[in-house]
Every structure is written in structure tokens, then in C-alpha cells.
Amino acid sequence: MIRPRFLPDNFTLTLVGVVLLASFLPASGQVAVGFGWLTNIAIALLFFLHGAKLSRESIIAGAGHWRLHLLVFGLTFVLFPLLGLALKPLLSPLIGDSLYMGMLYLCALPATVQSAIAFTSLARGNIPAAICSAAASSLFGIFLTPLLVTLLLNVHGDGGSTLDAILKISVQLLLPFIAGQIARRWIGAWVGRNKNWLKFVDQGSILLVVYGAFSEAVNEGIWHQIPLYELLGLVVVCCILLALVLVASTVLGKAFGFNQEDRITILFCGSKKSLATGVPMAQVLFAGSTIGVLILPLMLFHQIQLMVCAVLAQRYAKRPESVPELMAQVDP
After folding, report:
1. Hey, which of 11, 56, 138, 273 has its CA 20 to 30 A from 302?
2. How large is the greatest C-alpha to C-alpha distance in the chain, in angstroms?
């Protein structure tokens, strides 16, 4: 049976199913506590595998392209937050204060790793630079995101609590990643051979966090707090934000004189926000009952960015091959 083209991918459908499950059968009491422990273990395993998958050679190969990385970091950690603040007169009345806070949280997050690299590869961009830029964005985000959240949302009242949040995130995300890098010499080849089914660890950890977060939010009455018109407005807002960043990525890439392969990398690495990193971070940075509302914009933006960037990557992939690409195919 041929899959209808209008249907989202399986993970998106499962994500919607988990939200519905949490809406009708939310976890509570000791069940919620058990889910919390299981989720923390799954997240640690997720970042351990990220560390085991990432090649040091790939990092070194792309690390020298500092101008590209600075631009991607500027888009991710400067332009996104500035747009979030500048659009407040439009966003706050359209989607309400709670979802606007979620949009600001989205703007403070690092870029994705897997999808940024996958789309860059499909579009025939600078793959080593994409690997380095996306991975570095994810790692630096462990320290930058709590600081940006403090500035944008005023969640923490003092520097000590901000440092405490950074420490908690480092323990939960960075330490497993470093452990994975250390273990790469023994398990790297195995992880590479089994990456097709190991992706379910990524997806499973996100689903666990989403179920737990929405369970708490449903118990606190999330669906009674957010009107339908605000949810529809959120779709429009996510589309506008993504469009602005895509245009800025394209214009700045040309203005700074990057070649097309680099501009493709800038486009796909600078316009993404990470669901895999953002959801676990929200657990550390925010109180349980508010997480569901705060990650709702991120979940929606994540799906929109995947659909739009898939179309863009396919269009780039159809362009004629450049002379350097043709020369690379010739055996020395």
C-alpha cells in the first residue's frame, strides 16, 4: 500500500499519539515518578550514543572553517533571540503570554545535529563543516541556553541558580556525551553498524519526556488554559519565524562571500532548533507543570522546519554538479 503524501512521517504521528495519550491517560503519583527515572536514564543513554557516534576526525575536518561557524552561531544564539524579542508586539497578543514564553525558549536553544547534517548531505553542501558546526552548537548550547533563558525569560533570579542549571544540564547531557566519546574506541564501529535501529533511542527518549511533560501539564489543566485560536496562531508564528531566519541565512551567506556549498550548510545549520536537546533541558530549567506549554512551540516548530527544509534540500540536490564536485569524483 502506497503511503499518502500528505501524511507526516511516522515519528510525527507517534508524537501526536503520545500527546493524545497523555491528554486522556496522564501519568500521576508513583507512575509519574517511575516515568521520571526512566526518562532520565533514556536521555543519558541518548547523549552517550551521540558521543560514541561523533568522529573526532569529522570535528577536526570542519573545525577550521571558523567564519562559517561564527555565522551559524550568530544565527542560532543571536538572531533567533533578537527576533523573538522584536516580534513580541505580534506574538504576545496572537498566542498569549504562556506560548510566547515557549517561543522565547525555542529561540534560546541550540541547533539540531542529525537533521542539519542529513539535509546538508542531501543538498550537497559542506558536510564536514556541518558536522562540526551542528555538534559544537549542541555542546555550547549546554552553557549558552541557560544564560539566554535567564536573559529572555527571567526564569532564574540570580547567577547562582543559573550556574546550578548549567551544572545540572552538564551532568545530565554533557557527561554522558563525554563518556560516549571515551567509549568510542571500543563501541564506535558497533554504533555505526547499528545506527538504523539506534535512532529509536533518540525518538524513544523524546517520546518519554513529552509524555511525562504533558501528563503533568494535563493534570494542571493545560488544554483549558490554551484556546484554539492561540494554537492556530502558534502555527502562523512558527512559520513566520522560520521564514525570517531562512531568508537571513541566505542573504548573510551571500553577503559574506561564501560559496554555494557553504551557504547550504549555513542555511540548514543556522535555521534549526533541537527537539532532542530542548525537551530534556526544559525538565531542568522549568517547573514540571509549565513544561508542556513551553515545549509546545518547539514541537510544532521542529515539524515545520523538517518539512520545509526537506523541500529545500531536494531542490538544492537537483542543481547541476559544480566543477569541484565533478573533480572529486575522478580517481587520482
Report:
1. 56
2. 66
Which candidate, 43, 35, 15, places its Cα nearest to that of 215? 35
Write the CB contacts of 267 (distance below 8 Å, at least 6 apart in sequence). Answer: 125, 246, 249, 250, 253, 312
Three-point CA angle 85, 116, 246, nearest 5°: 45
Number of H helices, E strands in the chain: 17, 0
What is the reported pLDDT for 325?
45
State the pLDDT at residue 329.
39
Task: For residue 11, give the nearest of 19, 271, 153 by alpha carbon.
Answer: 19
CB atoms within 10 A of CB 332: 2
Smallest CA-to-CA distance from 211 within 3, 14, 45, 73 is with 14
- Whether 239 shows a pLDDT value over 80: the answer reads yes
d(CA 24, CA 206): 19
